[in-house]
Amino acid sequence: MIGRLHALPGQGDALLTLSAAVDKKVEKSEPGMLLHTFDQDPNDPLGFVWTEVYASSRAFEYHLQNPDLNAYLEAAGAITDAFSVELYRTVWPSALAAMSATGVPFEHF
Questions:
Q1: Is-above-0.70 flag for pTM?
Q2: Distance between CA atoms of 6 and 41, rounded to whole angstroms?
Q3: Mind listing the pLDDT tens digit for each residue in 9-27?
């Protein structure tokens, strides 16, 4: 999964801080999360990318139902002007439904 975010002007540091905090929580609470990184776009200081790899569709669904993620999505929504997700590979229909329920625009490839 690739998550693309764009912070509002003056909110880049706040998004970095918020994302670092949720990254630590997810690392501790989600054994099915194999890779979880947050990187800044080298060409846009307000652009950021989550790169995530899950052990299974079940692990992805678990992530989408994690209260820490839901709090993050709400907080990030207040300081970003764009947030979208790209899903790659085969995932269960229930995982696609869970992704849709987050309200974050996404494409499945």
A1: yes
A2: 9
A3: 999 999 999 999 999 999 9
